[in-house]
Amino acid sequence: MPNEAPLMLDMVPELAEEIERGLRDSGDAELAEQVAGLRMLKSCGCGDDFCASFRTAPVPEGPAGRKRWGIPLDNHLIIHVLQNQIIEVEVLFRDDLRPKIRAVFGDEADWRLRQKQSDQN
Fold it and tell me: What pTM value is reported for the model?
């Protein structure tokens, strides 16, 4: 489908491999099976210069959306899960991945970063 968000596996294959391996190593084989089909839907939009986190599934509003949990694969890579579905990939302080991830979302993440910096001045 032409309007679907890109697959993480196509855009940042090294991240997909790292997540799949980390989930398998931590005993989460069911979640690891989801990695090949994860789509990069939306930047988290926080604007922090060290962040390259993104959504992989819509998050429901209200109490249902707050029942998620995180699986830390290391200090800078956390997988957020809701109802046994990966919904977000939190990528922090990963200079090796940040440019590739931000390129997927175009200027959105960079615009938010510039906006945040100008608000601080």
Answer: 0.83
